[in-house]
Amino acid sequence: MKAVRKAVLPVAGLGTRFLPATKCMPKEMLPIVDKPLIQYAIEEAQAAGIASIMLITGRGKNLMEDHFDHAFELERTLELRGRLKELEIVRQFPEPSTIKYTRQQQALGLGHAIWCARDFVNDDPFAVILPDDMVLAERGCLSQMMDAYNDVGGNIVAVTEVPREHTNRYGILDVESDDGRLAKARGLVEKPDPADAPSTLSIIGRYILQPGVFAHLDKKQAGAGGEIQLTDAIAETLDSTPFHGLRYEGRRFDCGSKSGFIAANVAYALEREDMASDVRLALSEIMD
Ligand code: G1P
Hints:
- This protein is α/β, with parallel strands linked by helices.
- Helices cover 32% and strands 24% of the residues.
- The model has no long low-confidence stretch (mean pLDDT 96).
- It has a single domain (6-283), classed as Spore Coat Polysaccharide Biosynthesis Protein SpsA, Chain A (Alpha-Beta Complex).
- The chain starts with 5 loop residues before the first strand and ends with a helix.
- Helix 3 runs antiparallel to helix 4 (84-90).
- The protein has helices at residues 37-47, 62-67, 72-80, 84-90, 110-115, 118-121, 141-152, 213-217, 230-236, 258-270, 276-287; strands at residues 6-10, 31-32, 35-36, 52-57, 99-103, 126-129, 133-136, 155-161, 171-178, 182-190, 201-209, 243-247, 251-254.
- The site of 1-O-phosphono-alpha-D-glucopyranose has 13 residues, from strand 11 and helix 9.
């Protein structure tokens, strides 16, 4: 089985739910505590053994390229002031050529965004991380998926149970067998109505995929919501490629929603030794 060494991160979305904050700033640059969402995603990929990452960007997303580069004036100033800890923090970014960028020139859906990475992926298995979805876990969500991949191969998605009334927000698995950790699926459907959903096991933004999905994405067929769906491309490979959902360990935050974003900030802050007690105190004062 080929090892997974590449990851694709779609970051072209407009972030309309966070206007006006995202008028000029990519939503992926919104911070959880003091680090932008995109940096968490890249660190999770690297921790899982990913060597090469492609960001699928769009207009107005250049700030992310700057973020993963030297900031000469800042570094020089920190150096002169002897602020070595901060200097180390701003120099933490991947080596040149580890991150590549391409633009999704039209907003045609997640499947189309992934299709934009077809030459980068080539014939290799690859991971997909949607940076909006954060998983607070001891072992990164993608690393947990790599463990599962080494056992079963094929296509794997991270899954969680959702209330039935929310199935129309997610890709939903049609489960064939389930050992409580890994669910083998015979189908998947994008954002089904609660009444039609084959289960309540929903995909969150982590995938390990075989390059076979591109055969379907190449056809550019629109699915749910009139968008080209990654879910449909995975469904098309079910005959030839095993497909599993992994119930990861950890807490997922939907940082594409304001309440999820705020909850993530609180949860990540409470994990930080340097801040937990101050944050706890501040929260208790607010709640009183
Ligand atoms: C996308 C996928 C969906 C998945 C979700 C996870 O939907 O199409 O299958 O469940 O991400 O966050 P989106 O949230 O982009 O509409």
